[in-house]
Design a protein that fits this description.
This protein is of the alpha+beta class and 605 residues long. The protein is built from 18 helices and 20 strands. Helices cover 37% and strands 21% of the residues. The strands form 5 sheets. Strands 13, 14, 15, 16, 17, 18, 19 and 20 form an 8-stranded mixed beta sheet that branches. Strands 4-5-7-6 form a 4-stranded antiparallel beta sheet. Strands 1-2-3 form a 3-stranded antiparallel beta sheet, with no helix packed on it. A hairpin with a 5-residue loop joins strand 9 and strand 10. One of its GO terms (molecular function) is peptide receptor activity. Belongs to the adenylyl cyclase class-4/guanylyl cyclase family. It is a single-pass type I membrane protein.
Length: 605
């Protein structure tokens, strides 16, 4: 008894024993491996699990393997029926064949044997198939990167010419291997060339012609699905003068893929009804574009010459895939593997990221410096650092400091404010205080606050400096008075700016008040007395208390004139002094008369 007859008897026995069950067991020779569905699978947008029965010859025991099929609904092309699945612990690709009837003929057995014996790195490996209607399908190796068309049309994937020539060479190698084994594709296009996880291009959907013979075509978008791929068919195939399974027809299909590789465009979506009916249609020869760092771009003349040879109207002039491989090798002398190219790209990308990180870090440091500068202008540096680190800024007592109060005194200031726009008043005060701020930067003083037209400065806080605080404040006050002689009010240039100032020395307490808008404030009788010195002073004069006068006399170098006894609110009688000048005036450039003119800024009414 022959081996096939024995297998047939085994199959009949299994069916007789399990006739009441829904499972189908098929025993076939060792050269074959088929998978029969047991149970129904929902194919329209759901995930379901079904048991597939791999059956080997000379074995009456079947092993159940769960295959999970996840269907993606997309009826544009026949590739929509290719689904990922899990078989025997690995991911596979399942292509559903829409057969109404299926018979396991000798021809199909021979085709399966031939396909299973094929083994090449540029062919998608055939694993098995399902023969139960209506779940007839072909199980092949799964390539996670998708089809070549998917990769080419994805603008987010940077594909240089090294990758493109590698894809073209991979297809040529795979097709050359098929032709060497007397097997021709007949359906070659960019959607059944798939990319694996190592960026190797592999050919799928080859062979098994009889297995697919009864596959009825899907109508999509108003035209026959197979018509979608007419642009890949050779003219002799469309005319019916030649079988579609010839080496020359495969070479013609390959020429269209070469155009897609060069242009990264979708020729299928661009075709019109006239194109579909024109059997002599050819896409335009591509303009080869390369990036600045892409050194693998081939010569346009060589690449286009290859395309023209492959789609030649004369079938005998078309090259073989072995000849195509040699032509591509000349165009790509570097022959760098896709993995090496990917590693190089990742290395370049890593260096690019490092450069970006370094640049952004430098920008961050510059912004931090700006933020620190702004913060330190609002609060003393030690206090600001404490607050930034989450520590409480404790109030501190200072045994001796000098406080300066100054207020703008303009004849008819209330009337001036009333006759000026708010913008003009703000612009005037901003220019004045900016001028003052530039001056006080030259002294060991700290500007406490500005309230309206009042200006408060202290020395000896927060940095203690012995008794020098009196001299620092005195020199600064003389410089501010000297500046006011030449300052011009932008919108009232004929109005004379006059200021009065008061200075007092004594103990103070300094600390931060508030959390929403923290302010560094001074507290103590010294602050009140300094304010009284300013309020009882006269225009363009600096009044100092006896305590400050004593410190200045100790320091020396200042001209003081006694004003006499003065009744100060809350203090009673006090002897005060006028600070006239610094004896070594020439050594302090800020005490020399300098003209400061403000620049008027246009404002709206």
């Amino acid at each position: 008894m022959s081996r096939i007859q024995t297998c047939f008897l085994q199959c009949c026995t299994q069916i007789a024993i399990r006739g009441m069950e829904s499972f189908t067991y098929i025993s076939i020779p060792n050269s074959f491996l088929f998978l029969a569905y047991a149970g129904k699978v929902c194919y329209m947008g759901f995930c379901s699990t079904t048991s597939l029965q791999p059956v080997k010859s000379n074995s009456s025991v079947s092993r159940t393997t769960d295959v999970t099929v996840c269907t993606v609904v997309n009826t544009t092309f026949k590739q929509s029926f290719i689904q990922p699945a899990i078989y025997d612990g690995r991911t596979v690709a399942v292509k559903h064949i829409q057969n109404k009837h299926f018979t396991l003929s000798k021809t199909i057995r021979r085709e399966v044997k031939e396909v299973r014996e094929l083994d090449h790195p540029n062919l998608s490996k055939f694993i098995g198939g399902s023969i139960e209607v209506p779940y007839v399908s072909i199980i092949t190796e799964y390539c996670p990167k998708g089809s070549l068309a998917d990769v080419l049309l994805n603008e987010d994937v940077p594909i240089n010419w090294g990758f493109r020539l590698s894809f073209a060479t991979d297809i040529a190698r795979g097709m050359a291997y098929l032709h060497q084994h007397k097997m021709f594709h007949g359906r070659l296009h960019s959607r059944n060339c798939v990319i694996d996880d190592r960026w190797v291009c592999k050919i799928s959907d080859y062979g098994l012609t009889a297995y697919r013979k009864d596959d009825f075509e899907v109508v999509s978008n108003g035209f026959h699905c197979e018509d979608t791929y007419r642009i890949y068919y050779a003219p002799e195939v469309l005319l019916g003068s030649s079988s579609n399974v010839t080496p020359a027809a495969d070479i013609y299909s390959y020429s269209i893929i070469l155009v897609e590789i060069a242009t990264r465009s979708d020729l299928l979506s661009d075709q019109t009804e006239g194109v579909k009916l024109d059997i002599m249609w050819r896409p335009s020869l591509p303009e080869l574009k390369a990036g600045k760092a892409d050194t693998d771009c081939p010569d346009r003349g060589d690449y286009c010459e290859l395309i023209k040879k492959c789609w030649s109207q004369n079938v005998t002039l078309r090259p073989t895939f072995e000849q195509v491989k040699k032509m591509l090798d000349k165009m790509n002398p570097h022959k760098v593997s896709p993995v090496d190219m990917m590693m190089n790209l990742m290395e370049k990308y890593s260096k690019h990221l490092e450069a970006i990180v370094a640049e952004r870090t430098q920008d961050l440091l510059q912004e931090k410096q700006k933020t620190d500068c702004l913060l330190y202008s609002m609060l003393p540096k030690p206090v600001a650092d404490d607050l930034r680190q989450g520590r409480t800024a404790e109030a501190q007592s200072y045994s001796n400091a000098t406080v300066y109060f100054r207020q703008v005194d303009i004849v008819g200031f209330t009337e001036l404010s009333g006759s000026s726009t708010p913008h003009q008043v703000v612009d005037f005060l901003n220019q004045l205080y900016t001028t003052f701020d530039d001056i006080i930067d030259n002294y060991d003083v700290y500007k406490v606050e500005t309230i309206g037209d009042a200006y408060m400065v202290v020395s000896g806080v927060p940095n203690e400096n012995g008794i020098n605080h009196a001299g620092e404040i005195a020199s600064m006050a003389l410089g501010l008075v000297n500046v006011c002689h030449a300052f011009k009010i932008p919108h009232k240039p004929t109005t004379q700016l006059r200021i009065r100032a008061g200075i007092h020395s004594g103990p103070v307490v300094a600390g931060v008040v508030g959390t929403k808008m923290p302010r560094y404030c001074l507290f103590g009788d010294t602050v009140n007395t300094a304010s009284r010195m300013e309020s009882t002073s006269e225009a363009m004069k600096i009044q100092v208390s006896g305590a400050t006068a004593d410190l200045l006399n100790t320091l020396g170098g200042y001209t003081l004139i006694c004003r006499g006894s003065l009744n100060v609110k809350g203090k009673g009688e006090m002897t005060t002094w006028w600070l006239e000048a610094k004896k070594e005036e020439s050594s302090d450039p800020l005490l020399r008369s300098t003209e400061f003119r403000g620049v008027p800024v246009p404002v709206s009414n």
